[in-house]
Amino acid sequence: MQTHFEKELAALKEKLLTMGSLAESAVTRAVKALVDRDDDLARQVQAADDELDALEVEVDDLAIQLLSKAPLASDLRLITVAMKISHDLERVGDEATKISRRAIDLGREPQLKPYVDIPRMTTMALEMLKGALDAFVRRDSAAARAVIPRDTEVDALNKQLHRELASFMVENPANISRCLSLMVISKSLERIADHATNVAEEVVFLFEGRDIRHQLKGKALA
Amino acid sequence: MQTHFEKELAALKEKLLTMGSLAESAVTRAVKALVDRDDDLARQVQAADDELDALEVEVDDLAIQLLSKAPLASDLRLITVAMKISHDLERVGDEATKISRRAIDLGREPQLKPYVDIPRMTTMALEMLKGALDAFVRRDSAAARAVIPRDTEVDALNKQLHRELASFMVENPANISRCLSLMVISKSLERIADHATNVAEEVVFLFEGRDIRHQLKGKALA
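ok -> structure tokens follow
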């Protein structure tokens, strides 16, 4: 039978997973709003972001309550990691909101070119996020470790797209404002992959007790 | 006389303040490297960032140890807030590193225009950061609250500079790569002000027990 503490810990995990699915669906909808030029969908993303903000505050409240009752070092670690993961998921929601705002701006002008790299980056970033959260649920630190190197691929795609958009600007100044918006979107997706990497690193720390942050740091900032 | 726990708590605060001064000096040097076109100085910033990364890990280790011994709810709050502030300061270091990299890139090309807004934004962002950390040291939640509205000014300067740089791009495609670098720097400064705002909000939470995050959210993302 579960103790009261165990039940509260389970509720904390449950809230995190709710945040995870809200964040994933916000990103999916923001990029769909861009591709389909759908302003209504873009505005839904912004509304969903408030829910993520509220959940982050709830997770922190519950976490601080639970810290005073945590009997084991492993529980303390779980609770602090939960606060960090919650912060990352809230930030993913912020990036989705940024994407949705740029989608609305871009919807007011003719489309610059078919979107290929952006949907690819989205798929990769969301796979990373799902992978990191699944690793958390399944207590699988090897799976969490497998997420981390994928960040390099997303970084590379972001850089490639950045170069391509910069050359579109040079070709024709009329492209500049749309290119800037697309650069912001691409950067947001790259940052979502960074948050997924953070979550994966936190899961490794949780189950292995080893802090592996900052080991690939040079790369992440490049 | 201080107990062992109190001594460790004091050591935790001390580490945070060390991080605060490292972060401030990293930003100051990165912007000085830009203005003075000084590559050596820019490279020093990147080296100092490793120190911040290491301190963030030390703060987390110490914090998790202390959580298991914290007798009071206010100590638990202090410890979790310390972890959050430490994360914000480490991120300020990341932004300083980004600025220093762009400073090196910009040093390879003729200067686009005299830097006026960037030093102004830097002063404002650093005043906010110092204000938030001073409020933490002096346990002054009113001073922390006073930091928060200043974020709007930094946001406004960033937007103004962004528009100006976009019009420079349109005027002459030869300006594009330099303008993109300056946009990145301006955005980094704006984000440093966001981190200062986070620290201020955390200080308010610590001393008032009220979570005031996400209240000005629409603005921060605008």
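The first helix of chain A runs from residue 4 to 36.
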